[in-house]
């Protein structure tokens, strides 16, 4: 995704905008830590700032690579997803299925409520 400031240059590859990310301030690290609910000491904040700066600098260096003729891949080596035949089989015994359930109601799992009545 291109930054909103890309304007008429939106046709350029997204990697051209990586250089703008190469600086990270301590205040940004503090904000990220706050969002992640992390309590970092001053030393940890300094270390995280320098480590994130190093990561962003490395990502910026990747811009020099010519990837125009490289097909996108999910894995560096070819991988095959093993599949099995989709066949019906005997159902498991309910007692065996629920054996390790932390809480159950008859033959059902008891789980925390995630939707209020008006959200359905």
Report what the structure shows.
- The structure is a single chain.
- The chain is mostly helical and 120 residues long.
- The chain has a domain at 12-64: Orthogonal Bundle (Histone, subunit A).
- 28% of the residues lie in helices and 3% in strands.
- It is built from three helices and two strands; from the N terminus they run αααββ.
- The chain has helices at residues 26-35, 42-61, 94-97; strands at 104-105, 108-109.
- It has a two-stranded antiparallel sheet.
- Strand 1 and strand 2 form a beta hairpin.
- The longest helix is centred in the middle third of the chain and has 20 residues, at 42-61.
Radius of gyration: 25 Å
**Helical percentage:** 25-40%
Tally of DSSP helical segments: 3
Low-confidence stretches: 1-19
User: How many strand segments?
Assistant: 2
Q: What's the CATH topology label of one domain?
A: Histone, subunit A
CATH class of one domain: Mainly Alpha
Q: Order of helices and strands, N to C?
A: HHHEE
Residues in β-strands, percent = under 5%
Give the rounded overall mean pLDDT: 80
**Euclidean distance between termini CA atoms:** 33 Å
Q: Mind telling me which CATH architecture of one domain this is?
A: Orthogonal Bundle
């Amino acid at each position: 995704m291109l930054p909103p400031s890309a304007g008429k240059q939106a046709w350029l590859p997204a990697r051209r905008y990586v250089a703008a990310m190469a600086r990270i301030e301590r205040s940004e690290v503090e904000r990220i830590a706050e969002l992640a609910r992390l309590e970092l000491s001053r030393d940890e904040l300094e270390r995280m700032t320098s480590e994130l700066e190093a990561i962003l600098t490395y990502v910026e260096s990747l811009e020099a690579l010519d990837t125009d003729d490289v097909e996108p891949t999910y894995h560096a080596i070819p991988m095959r997803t093993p599949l099995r035949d989709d066949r019906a089989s005997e159902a498991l015994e309910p007692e065996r299925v629920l054996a390790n359930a932390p809480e159950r109601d008859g033959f059902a799992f008891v789980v925390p409520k995630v939707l209020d009545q008006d959200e359905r």
